[in-house]
Every structure is written in structure tokens, then in C-alpha cells.
Amino acid sequence: MIPRLSLIFAMVLWSSSFIALKIAFRTYDPMVVIFGRMAIASIIFLFFIPIFSGLRYRKGGL
Length: 62
Known about the structure:
The protein is an all-alpha fold. The protein has three helices and no strands.
């Protein structure tokens, strides 16, 4: 049940992102929209750095 809900959530998120981008491109310059998306993603990624820094890579390990 959870995988199906996750897929439905992903589809809704991606489709709403497409619609939001079309609206944003009408209002703002495309470079401003892309910069804003990258800035928000970078800020959110900062919260995951402590999690990723604790991972150790082992050759051949999956």
C-alpha cells in the first residue's frame, strides 16, 4: 500500500511542478525561476549533510 501511495504522491508532485513552472515562466524570467529552484534545493540539502557525512564508502558494497 505504501509504495502505491508513494508513486501517486510523486506523480502529483511532478505534475504540479510542471504546472507551477509554466505559470512562473509567464511571470518571471526563466533564469530567476531556475535560480530560485536551485537556491531552495541547496538550502534543503544543507540539512542532509550531517547524514551523508557519516556514510562510509566501501568498494564493491551495495
